Amino acid sequence: METIKIEIRASEGGNDSKLLVKDLTDIYTKSCRNKNFEYKVEERDGFASIWIKGDKCKSYFSNESGSHCFVRIPPTEKNGRVQTSFVTVAIMNPEVNTDFQLNHKEIVKQYTCSRGNGGQNVNRLKTCVVLTHIPTGIMVRSEETRNQGKNEELAYQRLYEKLKAIEDKKNYEKNKNYRNDQIGNGSRGGQKRRTYRIREDIVNDHITGKYCRWKDILKGKIELLSK
Which domains occur in the chain, in start order? Predict the structure, then answer.
């Protein structure tokens, strides 16, 4: 069973682009119902995420990534003027909230005497704990308490937080680059995935070269534009 996340973002076109995020979200959820895929939607202004789970759902939606161009009269347009608006679609692997694990073989542990005032216990006993992460060179020190075990626990927590932040940043940049590879700059000058000409009731996929009716896309039949 596959799991994917579709991200839909408003690009150029102002309020109409935001409305189209909602329209495209509705189309994809209809597709999910057509294919009996499980899905969950989260929306905010100009952005939507759809988590989808189902057999071969990744290949089914793989044709959707890129910049989508809509040529239509926006529902908010009072003078009947045609507007060109853009939204972007990215197909992502859902973030797996796995807990980051410390590799204790990569950590050097030292016990030293605490520094500063605090009585004979501080100056005599090695209650301060220093941990060094060999691959990154990150060093943390804990001497908050007079208990060596408690200081060690605090030191490991501090090291964990620092290394987890580095890992989270790496994953963020990786996902960011993967997303940008799919959607480009999402502008009029960029490569378009698809053009929807609403008044002519025609949709053209520029990658596959396929055409179909807008009315069919509204029913969630996105497979008509697949390779």
Answer: 2-94+191-225 (3.30.70.1660), 104-170 (3.30.160.20)
